[in-house]
Automatic annotation (TrEMBL):
Species of origin: Drouetiella hepatica Uher 2000/2452
Tagged with keyword Metal-binding: no
Record domain DUF4168: where: 35-94, 115-172
Keyword annotations from UniProtKB, A to Z: Signal
Residues spanning the signal sequence: 1-24
Positions of transmembrane segments: none
Region of interest (Disordered), residue spans: 26-51, 96-119
InterPro entries: DUF4168
UniProt key word Cytoplasm: no
Compositionally skewed regions (Low complexity) per UniProt: 30-47
Protein's UniProt name: DUF4168 domain-containing protein
Length: 178
């Protein structure tokens, strides 16, 4: 569930393209700022230069490090508030939240036990700090992209193409493995 808080379109790109192991305890939701994924025209893989593939892979590596650091910090925030991480996740899942791309809320998950007043305070405090961490993390990830020489819109475009183009995805994975 923490991943739902800590994910942005950028980190989903990193986790999807790079096939990195998930560090959080649940699956991410589709971010609202994820790039559109219309089917690319054939040959779009060749529109991405070798230099851009390298820059994209470099950005993914940096973003993975940023994500892992943010995940650790989020866990520390929750624990510092005195709330076990599984309980935080359970409370978070019990809250209705908008589905990505719609105004319709997801159905909340039922709690195993009611939330005490103390737990609610701990949860609210942790959530506030994690939300701030998320904003900082997203800024750091955008900066990681631009330091490689790519602009964020081009990164998102390459991501969108790679989601549909197996050849480009393989080129990216090959660079990541080296």
């Amino acid at each position: 569930m923490l991943k739902k808080i800590l994910t942005s379109g950028i980190i989903c790109a990193a986790l999807t393209i790079a096939s990195l192991p998930a560090q959080a305890q649940t699956q991410p939701t589709a971010p609202s700022d994820a790039p559109a994924s219309g089917a690319p025209a054939s040959g779009q893989s060749s529109d991405v230069s070798a230099q851009e593939v390298q820059q994209f892979a470099d950005a993914l590596k940096q973003m993975r490090s940023i994500h892992e650091s943010a995940q650790t910090q989020a866990n520390q925030i929750i624990e510092a508030k005195g709330l076990p991480i599984p309980r935080f996740n359970e409370i978070l899942q019990s809250r209705p939240r908008a589905q990505a791309g719609t105004d319709q809320p997801n159905a909340p998950v039922a709690l195993s036990t009611p939330v005490s007043e103390q737990e609610q305070q701990q949860f609210d405090q942790a959530l506030t700090e994690i939300t701030q961490l998320q904003q900082t993390t997203e800024q750091r990830m955008e900066q990681a992209i631009t330091t490689t020489g790519l602009e964020v819109p081009r990164f998102n475009q390459i991501f969108s193409i790679a989601r549909q183009d197996q050849t480009l995805k393989q080129r990216i994975e090959q660079v990541l493995q080296n």
